[in-house]
Amino acid sequence: MAKKLSIMHPKIKKIGFIGLGKLGLPIAETIAKKGFNVLGYDIKETETSLPQANSIKSLVKNSELVFCAVQTPHNPLYEGDKPLPKTRVDFDYSFLIKAVKEVVAANKKVTLVVISTCLPGTYKRDIEPLLTNKINYLYNPFFIAMGTEIKDFLNPEFVLIGGKHPEILKDFYIKIHGSDKTFTTDVTTAEGIKVFYNTFITTKTVLGNMYGEYAHKIGMNVDDIYEALSRATDRIISPKYLRSGMSDGGGCHPRDNIALSFLADKIGLSFNFFDALMTAREKHNEWLASLFIEKIKTAKLPGIILGKSFKPETDLQTGSAAILLANILRKKRVAFEHYEFDLPQQLPVAVYFIATQHGIYRYINFPYGSVIIDPFRYLHEQSGVRIIRIGLNEENCGNKK
Ligand SMILES: NC(=O)c1ccc[n+]([C@@H]2O[C@H](COP(=O)([O-])OP(=O)(O)OC[C@H]3O[C@@H](n4cnc5c(N)ncnc54)[C@H](O)[C@@H]3O)[C@@H](O)[C@H]2O)c1
Q1: Which residues sit with their C-beta closer than 6 Å to ligand 1?
Q2: At 237, is the pLDDT very low, low, confident or very high (cuts 50, 70, 90)?
Q3: Domains of the chain, each with CATH number or no CATH
Q4: What is the pLDDT of residue 394?
């Protein structure tokens, strides 16, 4: 096996992978499946068929290229599923700093490739002072969505590498992708590109939802607005993330923008766009909550939210706008029930809010007399049930199949 590998990948013989969590484990296993000799290490016990080292030191001793995907968590208050607090903070880099220190302490020539998300300036402030000339430090953040880690890793739009000597990593990715998709720059710029990418996506979702709210209030058809703008693929780039629905979620977008709003204040940015973006996201959810409350009051029915995750057909709830909506209602002391897939056998007559676009919700026979708020405009008409499709006026609602 080892002989065959050295023929397949003559320059990179051994790869170490520190941090076998939600991102690290599927990626480390994918790299191994591509024929590389991968050795993993996590402080937690990990179920995998990959060989594992018993310390960072022994992993480094046995590797030339060491990836590091330890967590850089944000305080749970800043994940995007709770109303924004007034104060902001940076990510917690203590896990990353500890892992880097241990790599350095192994005292071996190695290329250390950090994947973990950092705000721009983190390397200069917290990491560079720890390094010796034995470490070739590269920053290689992934543009990967939760739930599609392997697909996104194997089919990236581009591979971002920050650092002075990226050659060994470029070579590795050419072997993974069969062509050169790398974009190289310095570490600090790469740190910025990673989080600004997420800002771009949140901007599109905020804009798309704002079109929906506008259409709802003025009497326009948001689906036509979306379809028309989607044709402007030259100037508007791509219609992805622009369709009006619920706000974006996940472990990256909201939290990265909240962290960037912290840094924007710290460095005295002329306008804190990141704060404005996250405030717009939250205000839109407050508007949806107020619409829900209004319907509960006028119909004199109980309120039920369907959906907790931010992505259809998953149970991923990190940073979910469905959870944010529920938290806003709790803050306003509004009573409601909240279900995802665990629906009761007998659904009551109620005001329903569809907070996740799960396919199964289209097949529910809602009780006669119910009111449903559908931000995705995807439910079928049902007799005796009033569907409020966000972004469509009553006339358009009626025509919808
Ligand atoms: N999950 C994703 O899809 C995704 C996408 C893009 C970026 N990221 C970034 O990647 C990083 C990791 O994310 P995650 O979701 O995998 O986090 P995670 O918490 O699921 O995994 C981190 C793992 O690192 C381990 N760890 C911590 N310190 C260690 C040490 N000293 N030695 C060995 N292992 C150690 C933890 O035990 C844990 O298993 C974060 O910075 C995150 O922002 C994640």
Answers
A1: 18-24, 41-44, 56, 69-72, 95, 98-99, 115-117, 142, 144, 146, 149, 251-252
A2: confident
A3: 2-185 (3.40.50.720)
A4: 60
